[in-house]
Amino acid sequence: MKLVLYTLFFLSSLTAVAQDDIYPAKKQEGVIVINNGTIHTGKGAVIQKGTIVIRDGKIQKVSEQPETISGATVIDASGKNVYPGLILPSTDLGLREIGSGVRGSNDYYELGEYNTDVRAIVAYNTDSRIINTLRANGILLANVMPNGRFLAGSSSVVQLDAWTWEDALYKADNGMVLNLPELIKPLRSYGPAPATDPVKEGMKKIEALKSFFAEAKAYANAPSKQETNLKFEALRPLFEKKQKLFVTADISRQILMAIDLAKRFDINVVIVGGSDSYLLADLLKQNNIPVILNALHALPTLEDDAIDQPFKTPAILKKAGVLFALNDDFAEARYRNLAFLAGTASSYGLSKEEALQAITADAARILGIEERTGSIEAGKDANIIIASGDILDMDKSIVTDAFIQGRKINLANKQTQLYERYKEKYKLQ
């Protein structure tokens, strides 16, 4: 009974401190002109004192010459940097709020091993307090993924300024999520040894998955059906290459299994995690398999890896020609440090513009939204951030303005509200 009362009190307290005065921006009206900023296009080019014209939520023009348009809203970005909105390519944002403490606030995990018909987007919570803290750090889009024991369901891309999940939806069901077994024996044992070999058990699961995929592909190719199988129907876009298979894989064995799935079933695979991807870079390039790198600020996977290997992996993939994106999956910091991970990669072999590309244009390519966003180019959605200082530098980066589809969004969040509250209380300047 005490636990129930505590839970109710905790949830009610969340409502009391919710960001009720921070709400989505209205549709863009008129024309917006951003003048005199240093424009980083997201594809390697930098335009000094450039100009961006935004009309009807789209980038109408990018030039090196100032623009004067009657009646336009003009933003002077002198001394500032202008970037494409950053993209978080793999996250449970909007599905996990408090962590493991209060199950009622979380909707990222489903029971069962074959949940192909689960759609993360319908559980996405646009009122999450975490979302606004990401926007303040320049993250404007995210690929929201379900979790689970094995085949977890479909992911969707959302933009981070919306009333409902329908408003937030940017690209629906762009990927199917597969969490591979670890395929490695525990390096340390803190209790009795497992009754079965985890590697053998993992291989059995993968063989069962191959049989499941084979049946689903045969079902998709059948000219007529006597009955509908919802789990097989959900895999049809995967076999038609309208969807990608996001495979959580860190060690080499897992990555090799993912490559085998791609070749065996002729599907588009993306590696998520990819700690050992640097060891298989040439093979990944040969099979045209992209990588979403997690946990750059982390220890290496294996004990005999170099201590700074996670920092160096992006440059190794870049040199091999592997398409990759950087991701922040650190739950304690709630994913807001994406730009600073790219900053670390730029100190270990990538240039600043290459590191930026890994969280903008290349992330958009992997997620299948490159036609709409990821770079500052005419015709694309006006997903843009303006920052004083270098966006990749934790010490100097301050996002001053942000636009999602041309709408100037509110960058306030619970943390900035508390800052203002106690600055007033203690009469601080």
- Tell me the total number of β-strands: 18
- List segments where confidence is low: pLDDT < 50 over at least 5 consecutive residues: 1-18
Largest sheet: 8 strands, mixed
Distance between the termini: 47 Å
CATH class of the largest domain: Alpha Beta
* Annotated CATH homologous superfamily of the largest domain: Metal-dependent hydrolases
Sheet-strand content, in percent, reads 15-25%
> Per the principal axes of the C-alpha atoms, what is the gross shape?
globular
The assigned CATH architecture of the largest domain is: Alpha-Beta Barrel
CATH fold group of the largest domain: TIM Barrel
What's the Cα radius of gyration? 23 Å
**Share of helical residues:** 25-40%
Number of H/I helices: 13
Q: What structural class do you assign from the helix and strand content?
A: alpha/beta
Overall pLDDT metric: 91
Tell me the domain tally: 2
Structure description:
By secondary structure, the protein is α/β, with parallel strands linked by helices. The protein is built from 13 helices and 18 strands. The chain has helices at residues 2-16, 129-135, 165-168, 198-221, 230-233, 236-239, 252-265, 281-286, 309-320, 338-345, 352-357, 361-367, 414-425, and strands at 31-40, 46-55, 58-63, 73-76, 81-84, 86-91, 109-110, 139-144, 147-148, 151-159, 169-179, 244-249, 269-273, 291-293, 324-326, 384-388, 398-404, 407-408. Strand 2 (46-55) and strand 3 (58-63) form a beta hairpin. The longest helix is centred in the middle third of the chain and has 24 residues, at 198-221. It starts with a helix and ends with a helix. Residues 1-18 form the signal peptide. This is Amidohydrolase. Keywords: Hydrolase, Signal. Residues 340-394 form the Amidohydrolase-related domain.
